[in-house]
Every structure is written in structure tokens, then in C-alpha cells.
Amino acid sequence: MNDTLTNFFSADFGSAAGPETALLALLLCFVIGHVVAWVYMWTHDGLSYSKMFTMSLLAMPVIVALVMILMAGNIVIAVGLLAVFTVVRFRNVLKDTRDTTFVLWAIVEGMASGTLRFGVAILGCILVSLVFIYLKLTAFGGRHRYDVVVNLQWRGNGDSLDTLQPILWRHSVRAQLAGHRLMDDRQDPSAKCANVLRGTIEDADELLSAYREWLPSAPRNVSAFFNFHTIPPVAEAFPEQFHLRKVCGIVWSIDASDEDAEAAMAPMLSLAEPLIHGVQRMPIAALNGAFDGLYGAGDQWYWRGDFVREIPDEAVVLNREWNERMPGFKAGTHLYPVDGAVQDVKAEDTAWAYRDATWSQVFIGCDPDPAKADAVRDWTRGYSEALRPYAAGAGYVNFMMDDEGQGRVKASYGPNYARLTRVKAAYDPENVFRVNQNILPAA
Fold first, then answer.
1. Is residue 349 helix, strand or coil?
2. Model confidence over 340-388: pLDDT tens digits?
3. What pLDDT sits at residue 161?
4. Does a structural domain hold residue 438?
5. Beta-carbon-side half-sphere exposure of residue 144 (alpha carbons within 13 Å)
6. Which domain holds residue 387?
7. Strand stretches in 325-414, DSSP E
8. Residue 293 within a domain
9. pTM for this one?
């Protein structure tokens, strides 16, 4: 028995893999894949957990081992597999460097078993598992004083908040009431339920990818636009520890009961713990003017827009990368859904021709400092031009600057432009009304 174990752990079987040996290698990878996936699930602390990624970790060692067995001792098969992998495009973006480490671990385990070095595979599995467990138990590398920010809805008067702190202490190792806001319980039952969900920009790839898949299934009484912004340094609205932090988020407007509104938001809220999450009933006018005080007179503005039908993975990554270098806290982007009732009308029935679009995206360049006007303009131009290959070919005219040219105006109305020029010639042949994005009268 001891001799068998010694041979098992020390032997290098090389390329002599018969059916029984190959089956043993694949079964061993299946077991090791479970260990890798279990360790990942147990030690995961971030906001970007994915069930599909965990399942992939389980399957990856088996697949890699199978590839290694196929390539063993046969240069023709090895070259053929290499050619196949050069054709396949792997477009998934890992949001966490720790996830990359687990992928590497799963691949190495598959390579070890696939080359029949079973002892190395087993010992490596044990040792790497212990390393990740150690990092989990010791919270190694952590520098934050608090691990999570909890948003609570507390009904009652301001004095009742004194009872909240003991509850927090009772259910956590350390807790501090960072701030609160009193809300009026008197609600207009006809008002809409408005919600702002903010997540870290590091999670933008996962959140935007999930949002693009979820939106087509949303009912028409649910409006939700995705956005990238920097949290403004406004103490009355946002906790100070989040000021000037770059984030992504969803702004909702839901015409429904509280229960239906929560059900509508649940698929997106289940993806990650929001950094900031605020919900209350309000008139639609209050939601539309919620940030009027932030953008004042004298701000330097430059913006552009595009209609968007789909958001491929490449566009997801570009959106995050450009917003990671926003030029100021008033800059950002919004993806407004336009896939509802507007698509019930034919494109030729009104001036607007892009009724097959899913979103109207606006690239917002804004800063109160005149000295930053060039930086704001350059960022907005670069951002919009980087995303233009994934756009529908035109944008909303209200999001257009006068330096984009008449060709861009013409594109924004599509096949309806010629008819509009004839209308212009009939009612305004001298082109008196010509400010901003002008439709020229037909000759």
C-alpha cells in the first residue's frame, strides 16, 4: 500500500496515458475543481460574485486536463488546438484580480493532472487552498476601518434614532452611525417611486452587462437609466466618505405600488450590495429637478449624444475606462432607455427616425472652472468617438454641439430629413429660425 502511494505521488507518467489513466486524471480534476470552487465561494468578499464564474472554475481543470492529454506526444494535435484557440474570442472581463488568481490556479491544476503529475496536482491544491483560507481568516491586506456601509429605512421621529446605535453594536463587531436623513411619511399615493442605486466603478462591467440583458424584460411602467458619475461633495445628500468617488449607478422612476417597485428593482439589486441606495415616493417633477442645484450658472458645458441599439462587451469596457478618467465631478454619461412606447410609432410618422434604438446616450462634459473647458471638451469628444463604432449612427439633437457639422444633423433625422427640409422651405424659406442644430430649407 505504501509503495503504491509513493509511486502515485512521485511518478511522472509522461505521455503514456491509456484510457484508465486518462479517466483517473479527469476524475481527479473534477474533484480538485470542486475544491477550487468551494474555496472561491467561501473566501469571496467582493461585490462581483458570479455563479457562472464559480461553475467555470469547477469545469476548467477538467477541460485543461483533457487538452493536455490530447496534446501529449502529438505535435500535429498540439498545433491544431493552438490554431483553434487563436480563432476563439474570449471577451469576458474579470472585475477582480483575485478572480484572475483563481483562474490561473484552476488552469495549473488541469495542466498538472493532464500531464499525469498527480502528486503535484494534489499537493498544489492543498497548499493553495490553505493560502486563500489564511488570507480570508486574517483579512490580509485590508486597510478599511469599516467593511460595509448599510442603508436603513427607520420609521419614527428623530429622537428614536438614539435606539439605533445599540442595535448596530449588537449585530456587528464595530459600527458607527455615519449620518441620517429624516423623511416625511406623508406620501402622495399617485407619486412615483424614485430610486438611486450607486455601485463602485470597479463593478461597472458586471452591472452594465446585467443591465443591458435585463432592460428588454422590464415592464413599461419601470424606467431605469444607467449612468456613470462622480459623487458630488454635498454633505446634505451624500455621506462624506463617498465624496468625489467615481461610481456607476441606476436611476429609476417606477409608477407602481411599493411592492411592485421592489420586485422590479430586485434583479439588479441582487447583483451587488449598493454603495448608496435611496428610495422614496416623489412627484416626477421632483425627480427631474433633483440635481438642479448642482449645475449652476457659469458652468462650462460640452456634450454629445448617440442612439444605441446594443451594448457589446467591448462597449461595456470602453464606458468604464473612459469614466475612470472623468475630468471633474460634474462630468459623466447617461444611457436613457427609449425602447418603450416610442417604438409603437413608425419611424416615418414623425421627425424622429431612430425608433428602433434601445438607448439614447449622452456624454456629459461639465466643470465650473473655465480653465478646464478644453479638458472637458477633449474628454467628451474622445469618449463619444471611442463609442461611435457601437452606436446607431446618430444622436439626439439636444445633445449635439454646433461643431459637429450639418452632416451630423442630417444623420440624426435619417430618411426623414429630406421631408423636413421641404417643410422648412414652406414655412421658413429665409431660415430665420436657425440657432443650434438647424434644418436647412430645401432649395
1. helix
2. 888 899 999 999 999 999 999 999 999 999 999 999 999 999 999 999 9
3. 54
4. no
5. 8
6. 191-427
7. 332-337, 359-367
8. yes
9. 0.59
